[in-house]
Amino acid sequence: MSAVWILGGTGRVGRAVADRLLADGTPAVLVGRDAARLDAAAAGRGHRTHVAAAPEAVAAGIREARPAVVVNTVGPFTRTAPAVVDACLAAGSDYVDLANDLAAVTALLDRGEDAVRAGRTLVTGAGFGVVATESVVAWLCDGTQQAVRVRTDMLPSLAVQAGPLGEALAGTLVEGLPGVPGGGRFSGRRVVDGCLAPAPLGGAVRSLVTPDGDRLSTGLMPLGELVAAQRASGAPSVESASSEVPTGRAVRTVLPLAARLLAIGPLRRLAARRLAAVTFVERPAPRAHSWGHAVVTWADGATSEGWLRLGEAQATTDAVAAEVVRRLVEGEGRPGAFTPVALLGTGLAEAVGGVYRRTDAGRP
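== Saccharopine dehydrogenase NADP-binding domain-containing protein ==
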């Protein structure tokens, strides 16, 4: 029980995480459905492979092999995570996924009691989005005063690789909200009085200037960092926003209609298929850095603002996932279900090259 299994081992993230782990001396097993693609992904890298053509076969393989850690890179995580987590808890394996949709992150955190009973560690959100914003909130909230309101902004600088979006990511984008309380099936969310409540998709637009001088607009998005920020701060009022959501007035007017259409099963499945086939042209990252940003309002009315500077967003995701796995292999986990910073602290971001910066005048 020493190897790390990486589900979705033929994908860009799976290969990158496996390479990072192997460079640190941690063997990885690439797991996927296609033997030829697995062999090609492992060629010249020294990785082992395991073919599992169906989710049931993946779960059976985990129970038999009992890997130290299983890394799930295959979305939509609301569909792929439950059976894999069950297998990990039965086999005595820790589990890590890269989810950043609100439904999947919430569902994994709800498995905390199961993880405690099994004595295993479950980690969700091991990627740029959750870690970038959760880290800043936790860094600002030092416990000396009660936070009453938090706003986070995710500002990725993302290089695009040529090729189709793919089924896994398309499924994650389309299926990220079903089952989440506090609003309609595909409406936005914010935290109000400690509970999830409706919010306009792309709403509450703010203009920000990063410490690098880049000007960006952000709008509300119901992503996993919403629940991560609420847990990190304990604030009863939380909003999470992203520069990746369209913030133009015309687009924001259309979004509610699109959300209602996605609630119709056949249209949702059609949208996922069409989205998966969208092909991108390679382009470099648009800015020098990615950023996590947060503003915390305290009970006395004072505010604190912080930034976390990170590298290109996809490379940061690869580094975060590998660092979380490495620490679990080294015994830094504990029984329960966590977001990465809740488990490993704000130093996790610094371990992958992050630099914190505070831009407010401080608190009295």
